[in-house]
C-alpha cells in the first residue's frame, strides 16, 4: 500500500540562532494541541549531545525529551557534522550514504503521522560541504519550506530572497516567512512594511514574533559552564536566570541605580565596596528585596575571609575567574545558550509565542 500523504514542513532560517528551535517547538506544540499526529527530524545536525553511545543533534534530543516522542533519537538525527567531519568528507565523499541515512530515517518516522516537522541547520546553503544543503534535503524529502528571519526590513527581505533563491533552484516551494525577535517599539511599523514588501515578492508573511528577552537569558549554571568559571558558593541557586549584566567598575553610589532583579554583577574580587553593595541590595532595596542572579569575581582576586563568609550566608551564586572583568563581559555579550530540556519557562514561552503570533492555519492550508 502507498504511504499516507504527509504534510512535511521544512523549517529553515537566514542564519544560525534566528529562531528555528523556537519555531519548531512552538509549531510542534500547536499541532499536538490540535490532536494532529506529528513527528520530527533534523536530518543534518551540527551541535550534538551524547545519548548512550550515539551523538544526537541537540534539537532532536530537546524535541524528543519535551514531547515524549518515539525517542528514536538516532532516527531523529540521522546525520551529524562533528569536528573534522567536513574535512573527512571532502577527501572521501559519499553522498549516497548520506542520502540513504536521511531517507531511511524520514520514512521510518513519518509512518502513522500526519505532519513531519523537519528542522534545517542555519541558512539554505548549510550542508553543501557534504552535498546535502538545507535546500537539497528539502528537495530530497519533498517538503515545503518556511524561512525564519530576524527583525528588520531591508536586510531581512534581502536575506530572505537570497535563501529563497536556493530553494527555488532545487524546486522547493517556500510557503512563507516568519519574522522573529522584532523590537516592541518597532513592531507595528516593521510588520506592516514586511507584509507589503514580501507580498511584492510573492511571499506570504506567516507571522511576526516580538523579541522576548527570556529566550536569550542564560541561567547562572549555563554561564558557569560555558565560560569555564568556578563556583565559590550559592550552588543551590544556580538555576537563577540572568536578565541583565553590569560591570561594577563605578563607585557604589552610581552602581546602585543599575541593580535590578536578575542582574549578574561583574566586579574585581578586591572591590569590597561593590561586593557588599550587591549583597545588601539583594536583601533590601526601596523596602523590597532585589534578587540579583549572581556575582562574578574577576582577576583571580578574592576578598578576605569575613567577606567570603558573608557571601556564603547570602546564598547568592558567586563565581570566580582569573580573567579580567572586561574579557568576561565580552564573553557574556557573545554568549548564546540554546533552549535545553530543563528550561521549562523558555519552552512554554516559545509555544506561547508561536501560537499567538504565527498563522498555523495558513501553514496547514498550504498543503
Radius of gyration: 23 Å
Uncertain segments: none
The SS-based structural class is alpha/beta
Helix percentage: 40-55%
The CA-CA distance between the termini, in Å, is 22 Å
Taken from the alpha-carbon principal axes, the silhouette is globular
Number of helices: 15
The biggest beta sheet reads:
6 strands, parallel
Number of domains: 2
The secondary-structure element order is EHEEEEHHEHHEHEHEHEHEEHEHEHEHHH
CATH architecture of the largest domain: 3-Layer(aba) Sandwich
CATH class of the largest domain: Alpha Beta
Adjacency order of strands in the biggest sheet: 2-7-1-8-9-10
CATH superfamily of the largest domain: P-loop containing nucleotide triphosphate hydrolases
Average of pLDDT: 88
| CATH fold title of the largest domain | Rossmann fold
